[in-house]
Amino acid sequence: MAVTETTAPAPARTASARSGAGAAAAAGALVLVVAALAMVDITQGTAAVGAGEVWKALTGHADQADASVVIASRLPRMVAGILVGAALGSAGAALQAVSRNVLAAPDTLAVNAGSYLALGVLTVTGASLPLLASSGVAFAGGLAAAAVVLSLSGLGAGTVRLVLAGSALALGLGAITDALLLLFPERTNGLYQWSQGSISQNGFGGVDQMAPVVAVGLAGLLLVARRVDALALGDDAARGVGVPVRGTRVTVVVLAALLSAAAVTLAGPIGFVGLCAPALVRPLARRLRTLVRVRAAVPFAGLVGAALVLGSDVLLRALVSKQSAPAVPTGVITSVVGAAFLIAMAFRARDSAAAADTDRMRVPTRAGFAVCLVVLSAVLVAVVIAGVLLGDTKLLLGDVTNWALGRAGQGVTFVLDTRVPRVGAALLAGAALALSGTLVQAVTRNPLAEPGILGVSGGGGLGAVLLVTSVPAAGAWSIAGAAFAGSSAAALIVFGLAARGGFQQNRLVLVGVGVSAATTALISLVIVLTDPFDATKALTWLSGSTYGRTGPDLAPVAVVLLAGTGYAVVRRRELDLVSLDQDTPRLLGLRLAPTRFGFLAVAVLLSATATAAAGTIGFVGLVAPHAARALVGRRHVRVLPVAMMLGATLVCAADLLGRTVIAPAQLGAGLMTAVVGTPYFVRLLVRTRK
Predict the structure, then answer these.
(1) Domain boundaries in the chain?
(2) CA distance 648 to 656
(3) Residue 212 CA to its chain's centroid (Å)
(4) 62-318 and 366-687 share one CATH topology?
(5) How far apart are the C-alpha atoms of 655 and 668, rounded to whole Å?
């Protein structure tokens, strides 16, 4: 029986040919853009070597000094930018294709954070490895982080779950890395600046070693491209045509992690290129169907990534003075641009069902509620006493009594004069953050909302760091005011944009994560541009440290906490109604918009003053309200005091552990709460997985 060969109809072949020609033309234009940016990039720098000198150096007619600048610094920087951008852009396109999730990227999968931690640990150990071996360490760390995130969210899962899992893990891994920076400042000198992503190079050594790694990763992605295309039809259809679904996904994730590790090893974690590059390709793919195929989309996204990195470097050096430009990481610009992309994409993401609060909600009797308060009060008192007595110098209760009566010796007086305000700052900040988180979760009806994740704490941190680095002698009220201004600006963006869609789950979280990323990048920019002494002070403060706090520093957060508690208690019934749904408050005559605004304003004020008093402390606003609802039910007349006591206990205990476990060295309470809060957040994601 003869087999007849079928051919596509002429119009289809013509459309395909047109699409292929259009894609080739677009690729050619993009290559020209990358080339133009590359030429501009190598003319920028601190040395007075312009375009003419660069051309002479490339043709071998420049003097030795100019040729040395071009060959040893500028050309390697330009090539590194292309290599890093191509690696991250291609990795992002492959991850999005294999997961069918437009927000999958090395950043959202915590690959960069895992690689950064692995290299930080390597640096601290003092091991001296070749660059290629260091890339292997980064690859292992990034792959492990991606595996954890994917196991929590699942390939093909909703956008919010992926972003939340990646953001939570990145925060936890970042906290551990920050702890290494503070504990080993001599060994990790320069690691913070590198961690923001800088393509500056000292010769071609790094580029020569990483280029083959990137080539292998790209070649591997192209080899499995047809299988990834088949996955777009669905898992069952792909299996029907003989595609090993699980094996293909694992292969793509491994290759993407390899590309990301190479980029991190060469230039540090440059943020959001893997998210932005495929996002820029998608609109073009609607016109040029050839770019829908992975074999074309991956290299095209690589070209876009190269253009993004080089464009960011060119923009950075055009905006910043020649003297300051080398200190400013390129990744700061890409992170800000990526944050804007994430916020824009939030308006296109479909909303998902509300994440269920699956903790067992017991509603105890009044006696049970009273017992709960008594137990928590006893635990809180015990933690406070331990915080006052323990530290690098251990004291007795009698010493505290003598100090309170003014009869203590000079040594005891000095210790308690510095230690008691620290304990007070931890207590007040913990209670304020817990109350803030309770209000935010009630108003947004999102059990995963938290001031830190939503960018409110980051805005406060940015405002406070700007003041701390520019006016080192600023007082407590001034820092609190600056933090409130930053938190208010962040809250206006997050809650203002989210309110347009009725506080949809996806929109709120994605906008919040985007704003948080932008504030983190801007804080990094301020820190690397400031005086080294002020930078260390800012880093310590950002870790959530209560070090150096005095009585006057506690006044703003104490006043705001007292007023905020009174406001929440008086309006507790309205808080119960707002947390139910959209319709019930209106049916009962409650003006929803003004009520929401009032609660959110109080939450922002609480978060800002807590940040000013104790630095950036994450996850308290998430953990405390959840635990409180699990203990006493959903009525806020009971949730409010329990959540505040839990928050105060958590931060006070974290501060105590941070300054006693590794004494005389210290870790900020924020780092300790991140280490505790990340597993708790992971547990919530697992329990709400469907």
Answers:
(1) 62-318, 366-687
(2) 12
(3) 30
(4) yes
(5) 6
CA distance 436 to 178: 25
DSSP one-letter code for 5 = P
Topology (CATH) of 62-318: ABC transporter involved in vitamin B12 uptake, BtuC (1.10.3470)
Q: Dihedral, CA atoms, 663, 667, 669, 670, nearest 10 degrees?
A: -170
Helix (H/G/I), strand (E/B), else coil: 392:
coil
CA atoms of 602 and 183, how far apart (whole Å): 36
pLDDT in tens, 253-274: 889 888 988 888 888 888 788 8
CB atoms within 10 A of CB 404: 11
Helix ranges, 532-571 (H): 532-542, 551-570
Q: Which amino acid is at 38?
A: A
State how far the Cα of 165 lies from the Cα of 171, in Å rounded to an integer. Answer: 10
Whose CA is closest to 278, among 107, 106, 96, 150? 96
- Which residues fall within 8 angstroms of residue 74, CB to CB, at 6 or more apart? 41, 42, 43, 44, 45, 49, 54
CA distance 610 to 614: 6
Q: What three-state secondary structure class fits 3?
A: coil
The 10s digit of each residue's pLDDT in 345-395 is 777 655 554 444 544 455 677 888 889 999 999 999 999 999 889 887 888
- Supply 300's token pair: 């095209």
DSSP per residue over 27-89, as a string?
Answer: HHHHHHHHHHHHHHHTT-SSSS--HHHHHHHHHT-S-HHHHHHIIIIIHHHHHHHHHHHHHHH
Q: What is the dihedral angle through the alpha carbons of 454, 674, 274, 146, rounded to the nearest 10 degrees? A: -130
* Cα–Cα dist 682/166, whole Å: 10
Radius of gyration of the chain (CA): 27
Q: What is the DSSP letter of 157?
A: -
Calpha distance 450→457 (Å, rounded): 9
8 Å CB contact between 225 and 293: yes
Amino acid at 512: G
The residue that leads in pLDDT, 316 or 360, is 316
Which tokens is 83 given?
């290599």
178-to-42, 174, 219, 286, 429 alpha-carbon distances in Å:
33, 6, 35, 43, 21
- Contacts of residue 358, defined as CB under 8 A and 6 or more positions apart, other chains included, come to 687, 688
Question: pTM for the full model?
Answer: 0.77
Encode pLDDT of 22-46 as tens digits: 778 888 899 999 999 988 888 776 6
In angstroms, the CA 135 to CA 239 distance is 34
Q: Evaluate whether 307 touches 40 at the Cβ level (below 8 Å).
A: no
Q: Round to whole Å and give the CA distance between 303 and 300.
A: 5
Rounded CA gap, 334 and 473, in Å?
33
Helix (H, G, I), strand (E, B) or coil at 650: helix
CATH class as words, domain 366-687: mainly alpha
The identity of residue 331, as a single letter, is G
CA distance 450 to 441: 7
Does the N-terminal peptide bond of residue 664 adopt cis geometry, omega within 30 degrees of 0? yes
pLDDT by residue (tens digit) across 496-535?
Answer: 887 766 666 667 777 887 888 888 888 877 877 776 655 5
Is 334 within 8 Å of 271 (Cβ atoms)?
yes
Nearest to 476, CA basis, from 417, 561, 419, 554: 554
Coil/strand/helix, residue 654? helix
pLDDT band at 337 (very low <50, low <70, confident <90, very high): confident
Relative orientation angle of helices 205-223 and 131-153, to the nearest 10 degrees: 40
626 contacts: CB under 8 Å, gap ≥ 6: 357, 359, 447, 680, 684
Task: For residue 662, report the phi and psi dihedrals to the nearest 5 degrees.
Answer: -120, 30
Determine the Cα–Cα distance for residues 128 and 275; give it in Å rounded to an integer: 33
